[in-house]
């Protein structure tokens, strides 16, 4: 005679397995598109406002930079540079594909202006 309890357990396990496959997230879903992170960053008196920019790994980041003095903005880690002139907005765009904490400095004077924090996604 078949052990009914065993049959029930097998059916439950198979059912849960089926649910797992039916409900698991679809990796091709549109939710995987990169999130856009835009920030207005003002450099005043040698420091950034906000001083720290926090994004998530995979974000499409745009920093809209303004400064009260001419400055050569250097984002370490990503090794990106942009010259920012007073009275002008300069965009620094990149995909945050590298997680970690990165210094943003005035490359000419090597003065730290602020920090970019990319949190692992
Ligand atoms: Cu530098």
Spatial arrangement of strands, main beta sheet? 3-9-8-5-6
CATH class (first level) name = Mainly Beta
CATH architecture: Sandwich
Low-confidence stretches: none
Total discrete domains: 1
Overall geometric form: rod-shaped
Mean pLDDT: 88
Largest sheet: 5 strands, mixed
CATH H-level name... which superfamily? Answer: Cupredoxins -  blue copper proteins
* CATH level-3 fold name: Immunoglobulin-like
Number of strands: 9
The proportion of strand residues reads over 45%
Bound molecules: copper (II) ion
Return the structural class: alpha+beta
Which structural traits does this protein have?
five-stranded mixed sheet, alpha+beta, 121 residues, 17% helix
Structure description:
By secondary structure, the chain is of the alpha+beta class. The protein has one domain: Cupredoxins -  blue copper proteins (Immunoglobulin-like), CATH 2.60.40.420. The chain contains one helix and nine strands; from the N terminus they run H-E-E-E-E-E-E-E-E-E. The strands form two sheets. Strands 3-9-8-5-6 form a five-stranded mixed beta sheet, with no helix packed on it. The mean pLDDT is 88. The structure holds copper (II) ion. The site of copper (II) ion has 3 residues, from loops.
Write the layout of secondary structure elements.
Elements: H1 4-23, E1 36-44, E2 47-49, E3 52-56, E4 60-67, E5 71-75, E6 80-84, E7 90-95, E8 100-106, E9 111-119
Parallel strand pairs: 1-4, 3-9
Antiparallel strand pairs: 1-2, 4-7, 5-6, 5-8, 8-9
């Amino acid at each position: 005679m078949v052990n009914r309890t065993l049959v029930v357990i097998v059916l439950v396990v198979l059912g849960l397995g089926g649910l797992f496959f039916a409900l698991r997230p679809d990796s091709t879903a549109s939710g995987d598109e990169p999130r856009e992170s835009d920030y207005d960053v003002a450099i005043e008196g040698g420091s950034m406002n906000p001083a720290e920019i926090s994004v998530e790994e995979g974000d499409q980041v745009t920093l809209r930079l303004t400064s009260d003095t001419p400055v050569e903005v250097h984002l370490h880690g990503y090794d990106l540079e942009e010259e920012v002139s007073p009275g002008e907005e300069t965009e620094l765009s990149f995909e945050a594909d590298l997680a970690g904490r990165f210094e943003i400095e005035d490359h000419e004077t090597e003065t730290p202006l602020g920090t970019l924090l990319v949190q692992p996604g």
